């Protein structure tokens, strides 16, 4: 079976075509087209098929990681959005909770107030009320819903979020309101909170639904446009989109629930990193994905990645109640711009040169110094071998823009370039600490899996800051996220609020609810073409002590729930609570939400054939003069430059050295060493600071 993975980044669109049975792959990169990413995607898949000698009609699946939803939120560039909610609750998404983003700041940004997803004039209220446990206190005022829909349509609203109290217990009012709105305002994107996130916590549920509406038209149009263009180009394959939960979803599902794709690309990167680590028997990894505009950090423990808790899931400061892999993203990448701020401070990022104009080295009009320009100025990127020789770098342009900054700072060009890298590496190291040290994990117990176009170039410096002993560079670092797209399964999630305590647990009622959810997921997977043998289901719950504000996720057994199974679940929660908080208490335990994940098994990506290897003599391209900091001073050192595909296997290579390949460059500092192993990875032993 032939699969294409396409990951759209800030600077480049990465592509891979794999034959699942043989594990053979063809990789390609094209510039991202920010004005319409589907143009770059279409160009890339066409060229990729030509490189691989494959007809478009022979491709079975196209799997896509997209940043369309993420960028719409980060840039606050979504649809004009309206909301219909209960009388008296117009301002739930403005008020939020008593917690502030920064508890002690009197001049802080509160995202949902400073840049609301739904402006107040577009929030309409109607009569009707559902109350626990799903009882109708007052009927829905259907005439008011119709009037609100007409007013919003006349005001130019493009999307409407319908958010009623307790709709997670009874969605009938929301469903009826949606039907009325669609009849009164055809063509407007309409979404309901009971579809997007049927669980308690009004502020988070309403905000998540508003976000789904805010990004809905843009994502829907993008997916539709991409499907049409692929079809016109001769592709008959199904288009699947990576979700934030680490699984693929159909284009139809994503068009209805685009909020599921907010971490689409980064999620694929963690999966690709875990897959590559397993090739060398490494199952405890810190994934370090550095692209043109951002760096994404994830944790893999014993081959599995964690899902973010409700208190940790947010995008651009907005809370999001949607299943997401635990990923931390910062604005630090190859295109991050170095500058002096208004207070005279030296900063790197989060502003980025992006794909256009990009770093000065790309020769597309960039005039500000970036991380890439700093590396070029120090000789750490080979201008003759960038993108496998497909693109040349303008060394003089990089030296010029870095030199201009050096004059402002009163430093030498090399000291300035090294300073740019020192700042961005420190920012990246702090991001890793936030996902390890601050969560009670020792980063020294992990390997740093470095990928993305910039990861292998920065990894040894970041690892040295953190005391991490090993850096792993996967076979195709620049397209590891694209590989991750081809190594995942179809995944759908359902959640229902239960509110059951250990004092009054009805195991049979819980089992009935879980079975109902599982049947719904089975039906959805069957509609996607999966047989019962290709499906599996995972159950879990969100538990807390009665009176607590947040929950811990606990796995449920796959077998039917009974009293012993419930005892085991409560014991698991108690142990998790002890590990997380260092204590337990005597309050009853409460199951707040129950969850079921349905997984449809996609074709398995086989382990690729072991690289043939070569010799150091055939691998060496030439020597370069590269600047390193040695004993506190910048020193130019004669450094060999090797072609990765010709490196001998299981042979120790001492630093300094550069390892080039089409999609990235890996660096060894003086004191570092490297071995190319039979799994296709580069294993770098990092020299630690005295």
What features would you describe in this structure?
It is a single chain. The chain is an alpha+beta fold and 690 residues long. Among the domains are: 78-218, Rossmann fold; 336-381 and 392-424, no CATH class; 490-600, Dna Ligase, domain 1 (2-Layer Sandwich), CATH 3.30.1490. 32% of the residues lie in helices and 27% in strands. It has 18 helices and 33 strands. The strands form 8 sheets. Strands 13, 14, 15, 18, 21, 22, 29, 32 and 33 form a 9-stranded mixed beta sheet that branches. A 6-stranded mixed beta sheet has the order 3-2-1-4-11-12, sandwiched between helices. A hairpin with a 2-residue loop joins strand 16 (314-315) and strand 17. Helix 5 crosses helix 6 (172-184), helix 11 crosses helix 13 (413-435) and helix 12 packs across helix 13 (413-435). The two termini are 51 Å apart.
Which key terms come to mind for this protein?
27% strand, 18 helices, six-stranded mixed β-sheet, alpha+beta
Query: What name does CATH use for the topology of the domain at 78-218?
Result: Rossmann fold
Helix content, binned percent: 25-40%
- For the record, the CATH class of the domain at 78-218 is Alpha Beta
The N- and C-terminal alpha carbons lie at a distance of 51 Å
Contiguous low-pLDDT stretches (5 residues minimum) are: none
What is this structure's SSE topology?
Blueprint (H helix, E strand, L loop, with lengths): L1 E7 L3 E8 L5 E7 L5 H16 L8 E5 L2 H7 L6 E6 L5 H4 L15 H4 L8 E4 L2 E3 L3 E4 L3 H13 L4 E5 L8 H13 L4 E4 H4 L5 H31 L5 E5 L5 E3 H6 L7 H16 L5 E6 L4 E7 L2 E2 L8 E2 L2 E2 L7 E4 L5 E5 L5 E7 L18 H7 L17 H15 L3 H23 L11 E5 L3 H12 L3 E4 L6 H6 L4 E12 L5 H21 L7 E11 L6 E5 L6 H19 L7 E12 L15 H4 E11 L2 E11 L9 E2 L2 E5 L2 E5 L4 E4 L5 E4 L5
Parallel strand pairs: 1-4, 4-11, 5-6, 5-9, 9-10, 13-21, 21-22, 28-30
Antiparallel strand pairs: 1-2, 2-3, 7-8, 11-12, 13-14, 14-15, 14-18, 16-17, 19-20, 22-33, 23-26, 24-25, 24-26, 27-28, 29-32, 30-31, 32-33
Helix pairs in contact: 1-8, 2-8, 5-6, 11-12, 11-13, 12-13, 13-14
